[in-house]
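Predicting holo structure, pyridoxal-5'-phosphate bound.
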Amino acid sequence: MTIPFLNLAAAYQELKVEIDAAVSRVLASGWYILGPEVDAFESDFADYCEAAYAVGVGNGLDALVIGLRALGVGPGDEVIVPSNTFIATWLAVSSVGAKLIPVEPDLATCNLDPKRTASAITSRTKAIIPVHLYGAPCDMDPIIALAREKGLSVIEDAAQAHGARYRGRRIGSHSDLVCWSFYPGKNLGAMGDGGAITTNRPELADRLRVLRNYGSREKYRNDVKGMNSRLDPIQAAILRVKLKHLDAWNARRRKIADFYLAALKGSSLVLPQNPDWSEPVWHLFVVRSRQRDALMAHLSKQGISALVHYPIPPHRQQAYAVDGLSSDAFGVSDAMSDQVVSLPIGPHMSEQDARKVTSVVLDFENGTARM
Ligand SMILES: *Cc1c(COP(=O)(O)O)cnc(C)c1O
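Done. Tokens:
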């Protein structure tokens, strides 16, 4: 018996009839760039996120790059990012030529620590990028209050948080711009690359639309030096189908997370914590263990695939060796990368498989306790 980390083929099987029809509709339409399917998805997704506008782009990294460009972030500016995030958050800042200012997370939430964020602000700071890591909302109110006070932009990386709520409201419009990825493994995943940006600000929505399409409002007239990063209509049609099921699929993730939390309560693992203002969507179920590698080996022997998000923090990556970041300055992130392990979770995981995972974890705990 094997338990996969995430079963994407099962997701397709559940919606096969609807997805096949949506893809055929686009193929038959003869319209393959932007157009009505992308418009329709943008409108559905904006409504879902409780935002006024959504702009579909090529992927999540581009969403962040285009978002930063729309806010006028560039060379000479400093941008505050979490030290513990997927590399895309950092790459976006590097790609617009701004300077990264990594800030360590609050260990309770694993998200940007508002106090450390406040101390990282300088006269050059232009923007803050909170990430809703693992699908759990970052504490936005103190960050937005800070940004208001200092005149900074806030741009959220919500690539792991489709459907999550912060203080009762969906992630999607708390800050200036909210960036999304539809990479297949995300809670709302396409069958290829895709991304979007949501916002309540009409002038920013307009700028995003221009930037994603060659800096052009009108064909062959280029107002700014834009990009080619457009959400594909076939992916938009698939996403429209999947969006209708997102709440139900997130509810199934929550059920598994609740089961894990209850079953592993007495163990030595550090379990995810959820403040009362947070409604996470469990993109990942991340625990911390001092014997992480041995635990993973034990899980693997029993056919359970667990993963590490992320094994090498951005400041330790070769790509950032040249940036002169002091490699010992991010001890919290270093400790996380040594201790975190993500247990399998997904809308197509059975209760039986979840039970098997917890019993194998508890076996390991009892075994090591005896040693
Ligand atoms: C997936 C992800 C991205 C990037 O998305 P792509 O669509 O793969 O470019 C950005 N930030 C975070 C936190 C992610 O998890």
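The mean pLDDT is 96.
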